[in-house]
Amino acid sequence: MKLIIGLGNPGKEYENTRHNMGFIVLDSFAKSLGVSIDKKKFNGLYADLFVDGEKVLLVKPQSYMNLSGEVVQSFANYYDVDYSDILVISDDLDLDFLDYRLRLFGSSGGHNGLQNIEDSLGSNRFRRFRIGISNNPDIDTKDYVLGKFSKDDIKCIDEFLPKTVDILNDFIRLDFEKVMSKYN
Questions:
Q1: Which listed residue (2, 19, 60, 130) is catalytic?
Q2: Is 111 part of the annotated catalytic residue set?
Q3: pTM surpassing 0.90?
Q4: 16: left (phi over 0), alpha (psi -120 to 50) or beta
Q5: 110 vs 155: CA distance, rounded Å
Q6: Dihedral over alpha carbons 77, 15, 38, 62 (to 10 degrees)
Q7: Domains of the chain
Q8: Residue ranges of the alpha helices (H) in the chain?
Q9: What is the pLDDT of residues 85-138, one digit of tens each?
């Protein structure tokens, strides 16, 4: 079983904000599979499906970003998912816009959502898919990550999303080290 988590903040006011990159990518992936992430459980929205015989859960925590860990832990425990079968998609201030990194495990890198997941699971041994949102030192970090994407940014994201679909499909089908070799 694979558990794919897209991080973001719930609510219309946070749509198309930099901090919601995980939601954007996960919604695109769900659309490519012809499913909606609309079931409710453990303070999260989710879809469950089978891909090539593998059960897959797509989850968007509906607690705010900094409390995502409780939702992830609840799904992981309930479905008895090995932490190595969890992939968390998040934004990353330290990467240029739409650059990305796949990692076996690691530190939170100052990302409060990732840190809360680590704290809740008591482990950092889950997979990560970090997508760059760049940074602007002239804007307070909180205001920057909660800022909306420009129309040009959205056009670039739309062109980037097919690659994320390929990455997530490969996460389901391949050993993660092979996925990292292919895309990093």
A1: 19
A2: no
A3: yes
A4: left
A5: 28
A6: 30
A7: 2-183 (3.40.50.1470)
A8: 21-33, 68-78, 112-121, 141-145, 151-173, 176-183
A9: 999 999 999 999 999 999 988 777 778 788 999 999 889 989 999 999 998 888
